[in-house]
């Protein structure tokens, strides 16, 4: 609001380079013009606005760190997108921070040459298929999707064959209903004993291949614009050329999950910025008992708590970005950031919803959507509980997960 300080109360954005600040301003203009006026309608109808992808691609923000931007800038991009629409930020995160970054990190030169430019330019879209119907937090050790290597000439198992056969199912796959390609993670049947999967393999799977079926998950109360899917693979044949040669274990995938978990923590920041924006504006403009809500002491206390949560979360994430730039951010630090910021987010959006009273439960006022979307952030990319126990293991040397 004009004349009042913003939610970035400690001016973390001033740490960006002038070029990064200008680029962030360009993103804000795009979000204000192309996303903000329509986000609630897309959310209410649970429809994804595919028509905006060329305009989003024109910003040239795919995998910012790969383009020479700082990790602080990359995080603030996600925070700003989330501040306007969590669903669009989630699409961007899944496609760029998982699919595109996977190509950068683990793709062969031929895979990069074939897919990277189109993926970065959003001419093709991608998904990251890891979570399964029966395995979320324990997917590392419980993955049931199987990959069997065969010879395409004989159709028989062959450790040197040119084809892989995938069988299994994945769930909660963002962009899964419409993506062109998906990165599918499966246990290698030939690598384990007694039929149990051994090494984890990653595959670039063309979503139009025979044997791939996709069903949209309905009746969500959060991230309704995001098209999550249940995906089933039945004897899907994938060429050896489409296997990620750099993936041999679940530890390899942790490199990607560490980065995406950081970005979800930035989403928790963005949610708090949005909640403060909406609650503060409402408190200043809404009148009760003949005066603005903002004139009541309890409302001011709630707003200050929201602001403090947002600033504390931004401070933690800014430091984590510095550690990323130095190549020193480890998983326990990332887990603490995700658990802490998502807990502060949950408190912040609840306070914001309370300030709006009854208007806080209808999407005519943005707070209801912010409040609902926060529940998804609290859970995905490692639930609050799992991330807390990762940190607990790091500080005690004892695992309480299993």
Can you characterise this structure?
The structure is a single chain. This protein is an alpha+beta fold and 402 residues long. It has 12 helices and 9 strands. The strands form 2 sheets. Strands 1, 2, 3, 4, 5, 6 and 7 form a 7-stranded mixed sheet that branches. Strands 8-9 form a two-stranded antiparallel ribbon. Helix 5 runs antiparallel to helix 8, helix 8 runs parallel beside helix 10 (331-355) and helix 10 runs antiparallel to helix 11 (367-379). It is elongated. It starts with 17 loop residues before the first helix and ends in a 6-residue tail after the last helix.
Annotation keywords:
12 helices, 402 residues, two-stranded antiparallel ribbon, alpha+beta, seven-stranded mixed β-sheet
Summarize the SSE layout with pairings:
Blueprint: H1 18-35, H2 39-45, H3 53-58, H4 71-84, H5 86-106, H6 109-120, E1 126-129, H7 139-142, E2 146-150, E3 163-173, E4 181-188, E5 200-206, E6 212-216, E7 229-239, H8 250-285, E8 287-288, E9 291-292, H9 297-325, H10 331-355, H11 367-379, H12 384-396
Parallel strand pairs: 1-4, 2-4
Antiparallel strand pairs: 2-3, 3-7, 4-5, 6-7, 8-9
Helix pairs in contact: 1-4, 4-5, 4-8, 5-6, 5-8, 8-9, 8-10, 8-11, 9-10, 10-11, 10-12
Which consecutive residue ranges, at least 5 long each, have pLDDT under 50?
Answer: none
Distance between the termini: 49 Å
| Percent strand | 5-15%
In terms of quaternary structure, the protein is single chain
Number of β-strand runs:
9
Q: What is the string of SSEs from the N terminus onward?
A: HHHHHHEHEEEEEEHEEHHHH
Helical stretch tally:
12
SS-based class:
alpha+beta
The mean pLDDT is 93
């Amino acid at each position: 609001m004009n004349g009042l300080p913003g939610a970035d109360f400690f001016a973390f954005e001033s740490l960006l380079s002038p070029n990064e600040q200008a680029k962030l301003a360009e993103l804000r203009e795009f979000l204000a013009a192309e996303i903000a006026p329509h986000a609630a309608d897309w959310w209410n109808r649970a429809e994804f606005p595919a028509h905006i992808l060329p305009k989003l691609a024109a910003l040239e923000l795919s995998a910012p760190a790969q383009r020479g931007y700082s990790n602080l800038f990359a995080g603030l991009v996600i925070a700003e997108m989330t501040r306007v629409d969590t669903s669009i930020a989630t699409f961007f995160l899944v496609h760029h921070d998982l699919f595109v970054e996977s190509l950068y990190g683990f793709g062969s030169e031929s895979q990069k040459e074939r897919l990277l430019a189109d993926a970065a330019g959003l001419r093709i879209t991608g998904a990251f298929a890891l979570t399964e119907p029966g395995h979320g937090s324990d997917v590392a050790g419980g993955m049931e999707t199987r990959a069997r290597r065969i010879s395409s000439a004989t159709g028989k198992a062959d450790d040197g064959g040119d084809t892989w056969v995938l069988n299994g199912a994945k769930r909660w796959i963002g962009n899964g209903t419409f993506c062109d390609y998906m990165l599918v993670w499966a246990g290698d049947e030939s690598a384990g004993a007694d039929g149990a999967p051994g090494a984890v393999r990653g595959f670039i799977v063309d979503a139009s291949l025979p044997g791939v079926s996709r069903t949209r998950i309905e009746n969500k109360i959060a991230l309704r614009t995001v098209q999550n899917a249940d995906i089933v693979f039945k004897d899907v044949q994938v060429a050896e050329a489409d296997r990620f040669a750099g993936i041999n274990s679940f530890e390899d995938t942790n490199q990607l999950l560490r980065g995406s978990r950081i970005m979800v923590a930035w989403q928790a920041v963005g949610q708090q910025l949005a909640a403060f924006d909406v609650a503060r504006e409402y408190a200043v403009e809404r009148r009760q008992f003949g005066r603005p809500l903002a004139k009541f002491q309890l409302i001011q206390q709630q707003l200050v708590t929201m602001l403090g949560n947002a600033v504390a979360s931004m401070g933690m994430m800014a430091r984590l970005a510095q550690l990323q730039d130095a190549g020193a951010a480890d998983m326990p630090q990332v887990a603490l950031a995700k658990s802490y910021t998502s807990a502060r987010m949950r408190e912040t959006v609840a306070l914001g919803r309370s300030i709006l009273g009854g208007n806080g439960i209808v999407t005519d006022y943005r707070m209801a959507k912010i409040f609902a979307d926060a529940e998804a952030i609290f859970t995905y990319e490692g639930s609050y509980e799992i991330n807390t126990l990762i940190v607990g293991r790091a500080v005690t040397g004892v695992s309480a997960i299993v």
